[in-house]
Design brief:
transmembrane helix; Bact_transf; transmembrane; two-stranded parallel ribbon; 2 domains; elongated; membrane; 39% helix; alpha/beta
């Protein structure tokens, strides 16, 4: 019935339901009941049918085989709705090993090694370009930070990357040196608007995303990509994986300096209900729709946001 309603409401799939064949009648099928399974051969001969779609539980093996035999003798294509369809997503795919089909309930273009190489090549080339052409900017920012506030130039933070492995993420320090990342209730202290911890130069760096430049070190080391889901600090990561549906699917790819969620306004605090979920949904969309040209679009949008400034960057 799920398949019937799907094709009835979506003409683009190109299906028109001729009718149902089953040993039990069903009042929900609007008079399209054609007969019992024992009558299948005569039903196929009496109607103009292209495809026979089998929607039986996996345990009905003998019955399914009989339907296949009768349908093929009548020169009809047979399609089988997998018994695991309730677990599938829009990005489902199937591989056949020998004669054994494996259904991937989620797949993404970056499963392909060719796409992985293209993405890695872009990461390496862009990172080297940044260090060679804008090396002076790295030195200038480092000098200004050192002269205007006490503490190290770089800020190092434990975050989580591909396959949920820990990485040390590098940023230009934009806040005063602090002792704790969590408050008295154990919640992660996210940066807020007009946050008193942010230094004057740090405010400019965060507004223009220049504080993220040292993460190209992570990119060259292969821990991050230029484009991907933003990695989160450990307290926020642990909190989100327990409270946000599908959050951990972000760990299927390398985290990024910028991402689809960020260029679409999903950055800054995530304290309000639904903010983190919206960000995660956009990250998953990116993972399932990755392409080289999508990465180029995100990079271009990121550069434009750096020029214009982002109201959620603080």
């Amino acid at each position: 019935m799920n398949f019937y309603h799907t094709i009835r409401n979506n003409n683009q799939y190109g299906y028109n339901c001729v009718g149902f064949v089953d040993d039990q009648t069903n009042g929900l099928i609007n008079g399209q009941y054609l007969g019992k399974l024992s009558e299948l051969t005569s039903i196929l001969e009496a109607n103009e049918i292209d495809d026979v779609v089998v929607a039986l539980p996996g345990k009905s093996k003998e019955q399914t085989q009989k339907i296949i035999d009768q349908s093929e003798r009548a020169a009809k294509r047979v399609r089988i709705i997998a018994d695991c369809h309730q677990y599938c997503t829009p990005s489902v795919s199937m591989n056949v090993y020998g004669n054994v089909p494996l259904v991937n309930i989620r797949s993404c273009p970056l499963d392909d090694t060719g796409n992985q190489r293209i993405k890695r090549m872009l990461d390496i080339c862009f990172s080297l370009f940044m260090f060679i052409v804008f090396g002076w900017l790295f030195l200038l920012i480092a000098a200004v930070i050192k002269l205007t506030s006490k503490g190290p130039v770089l800020f190092k933070q434990e975050r989580w990357g591909l396959k949920n492995k820990k990485i040390t993420c590098y940023k230009f320090r934009s806040m005063v040196v602090q002792t704790s990342e969590v408050d008295s209730n154990g919640q992660f202290l996210q940066a807020t608007k007009n946050d008193s911890r942010v230094t004057p130069i740090g405010r400019f760096l965060r507004k223009t995303n220049l504080d993220e430049l040292p993460q190209f070190i992570n990119v060259l080391r292969g821990e991050m990509s230029f484009v991907g889901p933003r990695p989160h600090a450990t307290p926020l990561h642990i909190e989100s994986r327990e409270t946000v549906e599908h959050y951990m699917l972000r760990q299927m790819v390398k985290p990024g300096i910028t991402g689809w969620a960020q260029v679409n306004g999903c950055r800054g605090e995530t304290r309000q209900n639904g903010q983190m979920k919206k960000r995660v949904d956009m990250d998953i969309w990116y993972i399932e729709n990755y392409s080289f040209w999508l990465d180029c679009q995100i990079i271009f949008q990121t550069i434009m946001n750096m020029i214009k400034g982002d109201k959620n960057a603080y």
